[in-house]
Design brief:
CATH superfamily: Metal-dependent hydrolases
Bound molecules: zinc ion
CATH architecture: Alpha-Beta Barrel
CATH class: Alpha Beta
Distance between the termini: 7 Å
CATH topology: TIM Barrel
Largest sheet: 7 strands, parallel
Strand order of the largest sheet: 1-2-3-4-7-8-9
Number of helices: 8
């Protein structure tokens, strides 16, 4: 059983539950540790943590660490967007994600996803820009985990917008994956779009996961949950997919680094 979730959001950014509600839900689900990953502040973006609330978020995490010591280990994380300021002070681990490209949104609505593709002149060019943006995070040593690596496909269930079997898609994704893996980044299997009803499978796709396995990649499982009720959404499904793609271990953050544990 998965013991840890390092990706979730709270009322400090665009989540519906408080950090304490998330902590209690994690304990109810039997997790031994939880990381809460606040969206990095970005001007004019209401889904991000407001800059003036960052200190309060860190203080609240500190309070909860003390209150729940011995029951659950808690970590203060940041979901950094490549378009945000690099300010990692006071965060114990960093998830690197790409939600915004050239002022266009990858994942906020289907219409905006289509507008992004049109802005870049088609799906092939959009995929090139999207994955190059991810690959750029190989250069940021603080980034530990690659968040929802193929978020671009959020509205593309069953190939509704373009074909992810195309050589151009696979080449762009594989190249970015290889760059990030060579830089030691860990990839997350992310069930956020399942709990919100957009997809039936986690990110990344099995094809990408198989490639990640083949190049010696490492994975964590996380829910990107925005409410306490989905804190461990589809974790069993993730474990099954991970195994079917060749993985026999998951990686866990321990407060100072990552260590592997066998998939049971
Ligand atoms: Zn995200
Ligand atoms: Zn997130």
């Amino acid at each position: 059983m998965v013991q840890q979730n390092l990706h979730c959001h709270t009322t400090f950014d665009d989540g519906a539950s408080t950090p304490e509600e998330m902590v209690c839900a994690a304990m109810e689900h039997g997790l031994s540790s939880l990381g809460i990953s606040a969206h990095a502040p970005m001007d004019g973006e209401d889904w991000c943590t407001p800059k003036e609330k960052e200190a309060a978020f860190k203080a609240e995490m500190q309070r909860l660490k003390v209150k729940y010591a011995g029951k659950i280990a808690l970590y203060t994380g940041l979901e950094y967007d490549a378009a945000a300021e690099k300010n990692f002070d006071g965060y114990e681990y960093i998830i690197g994600s790409g939600h915004v490209l050239d002022g266009f949104y990858v994942d906020s609505t289907r219409e905006r996803a289509i507008a992004l593709i049109e802005h870049f002149g088609g799906a092939e060019k959009a995929a090139d820009v999207f994955f190059a943006n991810y690959a750029s995070m190989a250069q940021i040593p603080e980034v530990d985990i690659v968040g929802h690596f193929d978020l671009l496909t959020k509205y593309n269930e069953q190939g509704a917008l373009y074909d992810t079997q195309s050589a151009w898609y696979r080449d762009a994704a594989f190249a970015a994956m290889e760059t990030l893996n060579a830089a030691g980044k860990i990839f997350e299997m992310n069930t956020g779009a399942i709990s919100r009803g957009y997809r039936t499978t986690p990110y990344p796709s099995p094809e990408l996961l198989r490639h990640l396995h083949d190049i010696g990649g490492r994975i964590v499982i996380s829910s990107d949950s925005h409410s306490a009720s989905s804190i461990c959404c589809a974790f069993e499904q993730c474990e099954q997919i991970a195994r079917s793609c060749g993985f026999d271990e998951l990686w866990y953050f321990n407060g100072s680094g990552f260590e592997p544990e066998k998939l049971s």
